[in-house]
Amino acid sequence: MKYLYLGLYLLIIAACNDDKKKLPYYDTPDFTPKWEISDERSFHRIRPFTLINQENQTFTEKDIEGKIYVVDFFFTSCPGICPKITKSMADLQKEYIDDDKIMLLSHSVTPEKDSVPVLKKYAQLKRVEFKRWKLLTGSKVEIYDLGRKYYFVEEDEGIEKDQNVFLHTENFILIDKQRHIRGIYNGLDPNSIQDLIIDIKILKVE
To answer: Do 180 and 44 meet the contact criterion of CB atoms below 8 Å apart?
Structure first.
């Protein structure tokens, strides 16, 4: 019986510690954590943008206002890592299918090929639920600028690249309701995806 009480006690302590856990903020490509920010308005945040989703609707930062969201970059004809990271996004979709506080955004890095009809067909193939998961296309300059200069998705500190250098990464980026970066995760690693799910839980009560 005493072991039962001890187990319950440890569970309570763990729950209390989880409630107190705080996620860092990030504002550089090397993902050096910042535990406090003096001015939320001036701290690095994802800039306004204009893209197009798989239903041929304009999609901007206003559509994610007040939401926590996860970002990745892919292309529909990718034979390598993309099917695996899309599977990880599908797992997140299943986890948050009825949670309107969460959104998933997948940006095409070959928007000249991934037109709206192509994205829509891909969405049907991968069973993408439009209410939770947006597949985004649009200007290549816009997408690459967002990926490299704002999401820091490639983690290549100090290396200048333009849209002529292909953007390809397995990283998922966690963004809070104020459009601040709060985490980076390996979309190919199930353990990293579990860490992401835990961190989303923390953000939801922040």
So the answer is: yes
Contacts of 101 (CB under 8 A, 6+ apart): 66, 67, 68, 204
Contact between 179 and 46 under an 8 Å Cβ cutoff? The reply is yes
What single letter denotes the amino acid at residue 198? I
> 42: which 2 tokens?
């001036």
What DSSP line would sit under 114-160, residue for residue? --HHHHHHHHHHTT--TTTEEEEE--HHHHHHIIIIIS-TT--TT--
Tens digit of each residue's pLDDT (9 = 90 or more) over 127-174: 999 999 999 999 999 999 999 999 998 865 445 555 555 577 899 999
Instruction: Kindly list the distances between the CA atom of residue 58 and the CA atoms of 31, 51, 99, 134, 137, in Å, as whole numbers in the listed order.
Output: 30, 6, 22, 11, 10
Domains of the chain as residue ranges with CATH: 23-204 (3.40.30.10)
pLDDT digits (tens, 9 = 90+) for 65-92: 999 999 999 999 988 888 999 999 999 9
CB under 8 Å to 167, separation ≥6 — which residues?
A: 73, 109, 143, 144, 147, 148, 153, 154, 161
Confidence of residue 5 (pLDDT cuts 50, 70, 90): very low
